[in-house]
Specification:
heterodimer; A: about 300 residues; alpha+beta; Sulfite Oxidase, Chain A, domain 2; 8-stranded mixed β-sheet; 5-stranded mixed β-sheet; 10 helices; about 20% helix; about 20% strand; B: about 190 residues; mainly alpha; 9 helices
Chain lengths: ~300, ~190
């Protein structure tokens, strides 16, 4: 672990003693703002910087909030921002269950206080061959998993998105089955890079980005980063994942960023970073190979795409 | 009167291009402008192509004068599809002929799209009065290739989308109705 030196922290970033002592009220206020209405972002306080952050240029908030894949809110890139109010995030609960000693249903406030918040500036590489750099806020998913104590039988983690058929796109229209499902192997889920994400750009997540809580796994294609999570289950067998269920020849369980394995319909060797004109080369594991490659030793990544 | 109507068709067909230029000036081509203009030009090319294929059935339904706009519509469809191809080849494939060709061979949605475009080239060339006269009866035979282009265009779109097939299915449905109308006319 890198230890933060004082020179990196601007005085403007240091929380005043008054705010620190009143942090619970601030959190409550943040919760209140969430209740106030959809898309109403609230500042997240006491966020530490992270050594996992990239120094690459961050994309604009506009890029990150107007160009989204969130099929429950519409299948074109602009739809999720337009239809953001269709996602109701009031009284959010996340149920964590399955093969663990302490299955728990968390409300959002509890969940946000479970571990210290960190800002992590990650590259995100979409399977559609575009990429973006976003300052996410959250903590390692491992903190949540440790809290529920997975038992020895647990080998995988299954995630499920909230789905509200009355207000969201139907499965028939979207062409994928809702609720959206994703999964990780338990050791992948325990990897410190896997981020349980509550915010971005200093504030709580906008609805179109998967409010109020989502997953970010920066070494995998973006669709593994399931949005608006309300169920997490520890399981023994590889759980079904929405895109793999839809089209298993194009989307695999692992979906690690891999420039050598093309999507059948387009190349994965290069990508377009949003805001850039020319395509750039895609990096193995999206450039996070030093941290994550050891998770896959002995695994044929061509077969296990 | 016909000149005014033709001017209106020109205006209508240039409107999508004007919108793209306006959005370019307003910096409103989304976070991924190259993808956006590729999709928009392809979409409009296919839509205008479908409209051009509506002329013949509508003509038979009692609007004979519509035939005067068919060539214009066909050429505008060709124009947008050429733009669509040029944007992809120039801005996405970086003018790399080898890479373009490997994409055409490797990816079936691109194969279909290229086939559709390639078949439209001789049709655009032979759309002049001179060529119509010179080819005589063979002109009509040659220009039936547009049906293959339209099918290729719809299939290209259908093979491209990840899961939401509503729009390509709609275009495919329109095309089926247009084919049905022609078949019905033949059998009648």
């Amino acid at each position: 672990m890198l230890i933060k030196t004082a020179s990196d922290i601007r005085s403007s970033e240091i929380t005043s003693k008054h705010d620190y002592l009143n942090r619970r009220q601030l959190f409550a206020a943040a919760g209140g703002l969430l209740l106030a209405g959809p898309g109403r972002a609230a500042k997240i306080e006491n966020v530490k910087k992270s050594p996992f952050s990239t120094t690459e240029g961050v994309n604009s908030v506009t890029d990150a909030t107007t160009y989204n894949n969130f099929y429950e809110l519409g299948t074109s890139k602009a739809d999720p921002a337009r239809n953001a109010s269709r996602l109701k995030v009031q009284n959010w609960k996340v149920k964590v269950e399955g093969l663990c000693n302490k299955p728990t249903t968390f409300d959002l406030d509890m969940l946000m206080k479970l571990a210290p918040m960190e800002e992590r500036i990650y590259r995100m590489r979409c399977v559609e061959a575009w990429s973006i750099v976003v300052p996410w806020i959250g903590y390692s998913l491992s903190a949540l998993l440790k809290a529920v104590e997975p038992n020895a039988k647990a080998k995988y983690v299954a995630f499920e998105s909230f789905y509200d058929p009355a207000n969201m796109l139907s499965s028939a229209a979207g062409g994928i089955e809702f609720p959206y499902r994703e999964g990780l192997r338990l050791d992948e889920a325990m990897h410190p890079l896997a981020l349980l994400t509550f915010g971005m750009y200093g504030e709580t997540l906008p609805n179109q980005n998967g409010a109020p809580v989502r997953l970010i796994t920066p070494w995998k294609y973006g669709f593994k980063g399931i949005k608006s999570i309300n169920k997490i289950r520890l399981v023994e067998k590889e759980p079904p994942c929405t895109w793999k269920m839809t089209n298993p020849s194009e989307y695999g369980f692992y979906s690690n960023v891999n420039p050598q394995v093309d999507h059948p319909r387009w190349t994965q060797a290069t990508e377009r970073r949003l805001g850039e004109f020319s395509r750039r080369k895609t990096l193995m594991f999206n450039g996070y190979g030093d941290q994550v490659a050891s998770l896959y030793t002995g695994l044929d990544l061509r077969k296990n795409y | 009167m016909i000149r005014i109507y033709k001017a209106l068709v020109w205006l209508a067909c240039l409107f999508p291009l004007a919108m793209l230029l306006y959005k370019f000036r307003a910096n409103d081509l989304t976070a991924n402008p190259i993808e956006y203009i590729t999709h928009e030009t392809g979409d409009w090319g296919l839509r205008i192509l479908l409209v051009s294929l509506m002329i013949t059935p509508l003509r038979r339904l009692g609007f004979p004068t519509l035939i005067q706009y068919r060539r214009l519509l066909g050429l505008f469809a060709f124009f947008y599809i050429c733009l669509h191809f040029a944007i992809w080849f120039l801005l996405d494939r970086g003018l790399d002929l080898g890479e373009m060709w490997s994409d055409v061979m490797k990816r079936r949605f691109i194969t279909a799209g290229m086939l559709g475009l390639a078949l439209m080239v001789p049709l655009a060339i032979t759309s002049t009065k001179g060529w119509i006269r010179r080819l005589g009866k063979r002109w009509q035979l040659l220009h039936r290739a547009v049906y293959v282009s339209a099918v290729a265009g719809v299939v290209h779109y259908y093979w491209l989308v990840k899961s939401d097939i509503r729009l390509p299915a709609l275009y495919g449905g329109v095309l089926l109705v247009l084919f049905g109308a022609r078949l019905w006319h033949r059998l009648k």
